[in-house]
Every structure is written in structure tokens, then in C-alpha cells.
Amino acid sequence: MTLKLAVAQLNFVVGDLAGNAKKIVDAAHEAYAKGARLLLTPELSIAGYAAEDLFLRPAFTEACDDAVKGIAAALAGLKDMVVVVGHPTGGSLRSRSVAVQMRYNAASVIREGRILETYAKRELPNYQVFDELRYFTPGQGTCVFEAGGVSVGLLICEDAWFDEPAELARAAGAEVLAVINASPYHVGKEGERVARMADRVRAVGLPLVYAHLVGGQDEVIFDGASFALQADGALAAQAESFKERLVFMQLERPAQGGAGIGFAAEPQTIAPPRDAEAQLWDALVLGVRDYIGKNGFPGAILGLSGGIDSALVLAVAVDALGKDKVRAAMMPSPYTADISWIDAREMANRLGVRYDEISIKHTFESFKGTLAEEFKGLPEDTAEENIQARIRGTLLMALSNKFGSIVLTTGNKSEMATGYCTLYGDMAGGFAVIKDLLKTTVFALARWRNAHDPYGTGASPIPERIITRPPSAELRPDQTDQDSLPPYDILDGILARYMQDDEGIDEIIAAGYERAVVERVARLIKINEYKRRQAPVGIRVTHRSFGKDWRYPITSKFNETAGAQKP
Fold first, then answer.
1. DSSP letter, residue 161
2. Active-site residue 157, yes or no?
């Protein structure tokens, strides 16, 4: 006996219930025509993930329920075909004094026009970017259904990270676990998922198929890479990451007296392993493409300074959108070095994007003239530096308003952490592409992109001098970033420990960093929270970003340095 199954590794849009339903119906018909009798869709595929406070609106959940019924009706003619659809369901019981939440993160099992049963997710994550306890009630049941003569135990994402749901499914007769997921990407997450699921299958002695979402939704990215594991944890199949796919796998039950059910050696495929930089690049490209495409922007515009950050953003944007939908503006000031506009012009030429040079020299002088009486007798400082950044931000936003293209900001995580960025200046824009990349990662990814051409838009798009020259904001004569910040290898090491991994100041010092530098970096992180709250949304690629992962108060007197809290 064999069962051919398919995973709909698809890119859904939050709130596009009709479009999402059509994708599922089309995938079911294609899978059926190719011999599959079981189709798994990702977690909350009808709604899109994550729909956030849309889940709190009764009309939204009711519309999702109606969409599931519509899918069931549309699949009535597929004899013996079973389709699992992820969706929210339920509502709230309201009175004048209390509202009782009764919504569930659920999946329905559909066969020949009927919804056979609906399973509610038991384990609701409430960490990192997850807020599921805000929206859903934990389920209590177990779901084991039959498809092609095989008993399938259904789990939803986090359920498979805990012992009990899988053990209950096995006890109810499951021969294989089907786990539907919407698990946000960060560097290293793919390997972590496979390892945890391998632990699960070895613990329960059952094979497992992991059906995963793909696509970008605001700040989070879903990387696909759906896979199957044998009961001993061996990888039996794995789909490509960051791509929509209808992935086929085959389960076989051996002749009487043989071992338990397992995945066939053929025709399963295992995507070749890819390095971290390749996956990271794909995540950024998908994030830009989906944010701009799903929100209906006609293209993107950015300020191209001749520096490494804007160069990397331009390369990502062209790979995501194509050269015809990307525009770069170089806005030289009195402090812009000749090599900056030369390198910017060269990079724009290599990628074939529209490129304009708009000098801000006269505008800057006009601002200074307007403020001359107010600033009389005072030396030039960050006020004049920030005026330049804000002029550029104003010009980019004006171009955005006139032509409709969204402004991509070019600030990195090291700058966002320490406040080395200007409100309403280089922070002005609609989408922060490299907001979650430390500066050292920016350099590494630029070198990687120059050595690879993954989307056929041109090899070595970034002039070498942009990568090798000392970074500078070019807002005063002979300025470099290291005038204001520690060397980036030191800064980023501290940020990774303090911000991403929550290590304490004393722990970081014990790892070899100077106390004064660590305490200074911690202070900069603290006092610049007000800036980050006003930053545009950006792509999350680490396990802790400055977004939903990071929720610190702006107003706080807590000081972690030694002895600071003693009365």
C-alpha cells in the first residue's frame, strides 16, 4: 500500500480570503491530477499568518469559516481526496462586563465536500514574534484521520515541539504525523526545526511530514523548506527554501510482517544544503518583493550614498523587483567625497537602475542661513549634520509622494541599536531592508553577493572600494563611523551578546570586552529606544530583532551597570 501526499508550500496574503482559498483549491486539483490523495496546507493558510488583531474581529473569523466551507464545496468532486486547511475559527462570548475568548488556531480535515473534523492547536507560543495567547484558546483534543488507508495524526506547529500532542496522536492510532506550520525564519532556524522534529519522531516512533508556509508578511519571513522524516529521524524529503512549491512525497506500508510505515526512497527529493549567506539573501529579497508587491507599491526608491549600507539595499532591491522598478538618488552635500558619487554612479550603472544626482548644497546653506541668528556664536555640531540627513529624507519622501514608489531606508542594526541614525533623516521611509543586519553582516553579505548572482541581475554589483573604504556618514569633514562608535567587530560582538542573547554586562566583560565600552554600548541602546519606536518596519532575520522581539520601555531609570541600583 502506498499513499501519495502533497504539501502546498504556498505564499498567502493576510486577509485575502478569496485569493488564499483559490490557491488551495487550485493546489488540490493539481495534486489530485498527479495522483496525491492527501494535501496539507500551512498553518492559518486561509487567513494568512499573522493576521494579528484581525483575529479579534468576529467578522474576520466568520469570513474565514465561510471560506473553509467554500473550499469544501469546491473539492466535492475529488473522490477520496483529503485536504487539510489551516484557519482561525470560533469567536467571543460577550456580556456587558466580560468578554470570554473562544477563538482557536485550527485546521479542518476536508473530504469530498464535507468537513470531517476540526482540530484546535494545543500549544500556543507567546515568545519572540508570537502573540497567540492574545488571540486563541488552547485546544484540548486529538485528531487522527484516514487518508488512502493511512492513519494520520494532525498537529499544528508548536504542538510538535512538545511531547504530549504527538504521544496522544500515536495513542489514538496515528501511523504518521502531519504537522502544518507557519514558523518565521531567522538565521539557523531551518536546521533547528529539522533537529527538533527528529527528536520528536524518535520519541514517538512515527514518521513525520512538516508542511511549511513561504512568503513575507510585514517584518517576518517564512522560508518554506518543507520536509519529511523517517521514524528514526532520517531526512526523507526536503523542498527548496523561499520558493512556492507543490511538494510530493510517498508513504509506503511494507508487506505483512515488515517494519512500520515510512517514506519511499523515490520519488522524494532533498534540496541541496545552502550556506547561511544564500538563505539570508533570499530572505531579504523575498521580504522586499512581498512587502512592496502585497501592498501595491509600483516600485522603490532609495538614497544611494556611495557607502556599503545603501549599496547592499540597492542590490537586494534590484534582485527583488528588477531594475525597472528601482530608482536611486545620490544627494551630495559639501562633505561628500568625490569617490562617493563616483562609486554610486558606477554601481547604478552596473545594475542598470535609474540614477539621479540631486545636490543638497544650496538647500543646506539655505537652512543654515535661516537658522543663523538662532545659532549665532555656536559651533557646528550634530545639529548641522542632522539637517543634511533631514534634507535628504525630505527629498526622498517628496519623490515617493510624486511617483508612488516606497522609500527603502538603508540603516543597519548596529546603527539602530546605538542611535547612529537621524530621525526624519536617514530613518525616513517606508521599509527598512537591513534593519536586522549587524554592520559586520552587511560587509559579509556584500562580499557574498559580489561572488554570486542568484537572480541573474548582474555579477559583482557593488564596487570593491565601497566594501573596503572606512564607513562614513560624510556629514562633516574627514568623518568616519569609528569617530563615534567602537570598531564594528567589537560593537557587533557586544550587541549580539547583550541585545540578541540577553547576556548581562558582567558576562560580556568576562568574555573579554572592556567594561567602559560595554557600559557605553548598553547606555546607547537604552537612550535610543525613542528613535527605534519611530523607525519603519523592517525584515526580521535574527532570533531577536528591533521589532516585536524587543519591547523595552522608552522611559526607564533602570541601569544595569555594577552598583547602579544600590540605594
1. G
2. yes
Tens digits of residue pLDDT in 295-326: 999 999 999 999 999 999 999 999 999 999 99
Residue indicated by cell numbers 509506503: 252
Q: What is the mean pLDDT of residues 545-558?
A: 93
Residue type, 265: A
300-303 vs 406-409, strand pairing mode? parallel
CB distance 426 to 392 below 8 Å: yes
Q: Is 221 helix (H, G, I), strand (E, B) or coil?
A: strand
Distance, in Å, from the CA atom of 529 to the CA atom of 546, rounded to the nearest integer, reads: 10
3-state secondary structure of 218: coil
Angle between helices 308-321 and 276-294 (to 10 degrees): 70
- Among 277, 268, 221, which Cα is nearest to 248's? 268
Number of H helices, E strands in the chain: 17, 20
- The residue from 64, 143, 157, 421 that is catalytic is 157
The span from the CA of 61 to the CA of 59, in Å, is: 6
Model confidence at 91: pLDDT above 70? no
C-alpha cell at 264: 519511499
Instruction: Establish whether 519 is a catalytic residue.
Output: no
Least Cα distance to 465 among 295, 351, 344, 319 occurs for 344
Q: What is the pLDDT of residues 63-76, one digit of tens each?
A: 999 999 999 999 99
Angle at CA 137, nearest 5°, toward 134 and 141? 155
Alpha helices, DSSP H, located in 34-116? 58-74
Q: Is 43 a catalytic residue?
A: yes
* 3-class state of residue 100 by DSSP: strand
Active-site annotation holder among 23, 64, 121, 143: 121
DSSP SS3 for 329: strand
The H-assigned helical ranges of 250-337 are 276-294, 308-321
State residue 173's pLDDT score.
96
- Sequence-distant (6+) residues with CB within 8 A of 473 are 385, 389, 420, 479, 481
**DSSP-based three-state secondary structure for 524:** helix
Q: How far apart are CA 93 and CA 509, in angstroms?
A: 53
Decide: helix, strand or coil at residue 494.
helix
Reading the block at residue 296, the C-alpha cell is: 501595491
Using alpha carbons, select from 49, 61, 54, 56 the residue that is nearest to residue 20.
49
CB 39 within 8 A of CB 33: no
The CA angle 231-126-548, to the nearest 5 degrees, is 115
Q: Which amino acid is at 402?
A: K
3-state secondary structure of 117: strand
Burial of 146 (0-12, 13-18, 19+ CB in 10 A): middle
